[in-house]
Design brief:
single chain, 486 residues, alpha/beta, Aspartate Aminotransferase, domain 1, Aspartate Aminotransferase, domain 2, 3 domains, four-stranded antiparallel sheet
Length: 486
């Protein structure tokens, strides 16, 4: 492709993206295809001769788009959002065009210095105290892995990297069953293993019980194991549980444990003064992570990872071959030593574009709206005969069940309802299991969501629950949004 052709097709691609964002609400939220449907249209071998770009773009529409689940849809209430605001998309285009590899300051001074400065903007905006330094990871999962490797090496005084873990007492890590699955995966990759992850008991709201944490740490220490780290969760994936940081931090100080705080989704709400209580005690944490790519409109991938002592992280992850040194080594930040991969993209640019385009006040307004609409949704569910609000809203997340009086297997019934809702395509929700019961999980967070989308989606769930319960095979139409609060 020559550059003139690139210019023409690039303009066409921007037009296509714009049209897509304008019309995405008209599409089924979840892809309406069966496994193998996309592969059936793909050639069995790579082409020997070039294809016309216009034909490739046409095939993109014909083959790819039917298999896309629309994460930018305003009725996407599954998982957590992966928002892509227009300024963030523009920044990603520029990043792709520049194609910088940002492993060292010297390989991209602008990327390094912008990352440092913009993350300090974020630190201030969410209320982290001075003394925390930031790095952008691809995801909170990677940040948690980096944190647990750092914690392991701090506990083993750097000897785990040198000797291998077999030469040392087994390391243990502590988190609740509400913690994200990435914690267990990080334990596996870090050589701690699933067996080294201790599940701390939780209270009725899914929050870690610090006295149980202290008891388990004491038991493991007495057994000759090496307690090393605690992962506290702010806004658990399933129900939005918020672990009590001050009490957990007290145990960590007493036992010299590394404290990593995972606020992957809920951390964005720290922009709001009324939610700052979630990080009471954060000054005692060793690291903290949240994902601007979830709830702040920044293109995936962008995880803001803050550490109190970068030296602990770089001692665990840094390796200094001669070909990765430069005249500035030691005098500047080389973020390659702060991350698992050596190669790094210019992720700070999209964060810079997004924050400057919208400003913090507009982002705060969006967050408050989502939280308010989730509270309204909870009221509608609680007031609807035959439905049960299982967990009250935590920020913009809740869970519920359909509980007809004469259905014996409510778990199977709710799993079937969720499948029916998602197959219908009008909205998209996520399954969960809470205290042994199948529940339906609803998370509000898409950048384009409005109150009407929450309301009309709840109406759709009500209709699908009733028609499915009556074994009516007709496809119901969404009812008109009701006036008032429902």
């Amino acid at each position: 492709m020559d550059l003139d052709s690139f210019r023409n097709h690039g303009h066409a691609a921007i037009d296509w993206i714009t049209d897509y964002l304008v019309t995405v609400e008209e599409q089924p939220v979840r892809a309406q295809v069966r496994p193998g449907a996309i592969d059936a249209h793909l050639a069995r071998e790579a082409p020997d001769r070039p294809h016309d770009v216009a034909a490739i773009l046409a095939d993109f529409e014909r083959i790819v788009m039917p298999g896309i689940t629309h994460w930018q849809h305003p009725r996407f209430f599954a998982y957590f959002p992966a928002n892509a605001s227009p300024p963030s998309v523009l920044a990603e285009i520029l990043t792709a065009g520049i194609a910088a590899q940002c492993m060292l300051w010297q390989t991209s001074p602008a990327a390094t210095e912008m990352e440092t400065r913009v993350l300090d903007w974020v630190r201030q905006a969410i209320g982290l105290p001075e003394g925390f330094a930031g790095v952008i990871q691809d995801s909170a999962s990677t940040a948690t892995l980096a944190a647990l490797v750092a914690a392991r090496e701090r506990a083993l005084e750097g000897n785990g990297n040198r000797d291998g873990l077999a030469q040392h007492r087994p390391v243990t890590v502590y988190a609740t069953a509400e913690a994200h699955s990435s914690v267990e995966k990080a334990c596996r990759i870090a050589g701690i293993g699933s067996g080294g992850l201790r599940r701390v008991a939780v209270d009725g709201m899914g929050r870690m019980i610090p006295t149980d944490l202290a008891a388990q740490v004491a038991t493991d220490g007495a057994a000759g194991l090496h307690p090393a780290a605690v992962v506290a969760t702010l806004g658990s994936t399933g129900i939005g549980a918020v672990d009590p940081l001050p009490e957990i931090a007290q145990v960590c100080r007493a036992e010299d444990l590394y404290l990593h705080v995972d606020a992957a989704w809920a951390g964005s709400a720290l922009l709001l003064d009324e939610w700052r209580w979630m990080i009471d005690g954060i000054e005692a944490a060793d690291s903290f992570v949240f994902n601007p790519h979830k709830w702040l409109g920044v293109q995936f991938d962008c995880a803001a990872h803050f550490v109190k002592d970068p030296g602990v992280l770089t001692a665990a992850l840094g390796i200094q071959p001669s070909y990765l040194t430069s005249s500035e080594t030691g005098a500047v930040i080389d973020y390659r030593d702060w991350s698992i991969p050596l190669g790094r993209r210019f992720r700070a640019l999209k964060l810079w574009f997004t924050l400057r385009t919208y400003g913090l006040e507009a982002l705060r307004a969006m967050l408050r709206n989502h939280i308010t609409w989730t509270k309204e949704l909870a009221e509608w569910i609680a007031a609807e005969p035959g439905f049960e609000l299982v967990t009250s809203p935590s920020l913009a997340l809740l869970t519920f069940r359909h509980v007809p009086a004469d259905v014996a297997d409510l778990d199977a019934h709710n799993r079937a309802l969720l499948e029916r809702v998602n197959d219908d395509g009008f909205l998209y929700l996520t399954p969960h299991s809470h205290q042994g019961r199948a529940v339906v999980r609803w998370s509000v967070g898409a950048r384009t969501t409005e109150r009407k989308h929450v309301l009309e989606s709840w109406d759709r769930v009500r209709v699908l629950a009733k028609t499915g319960y009556k074994e009516d095979s007709t496809s119901p139409k969404p009812s008109s949004p009701r006036s008032g609060s429902g």
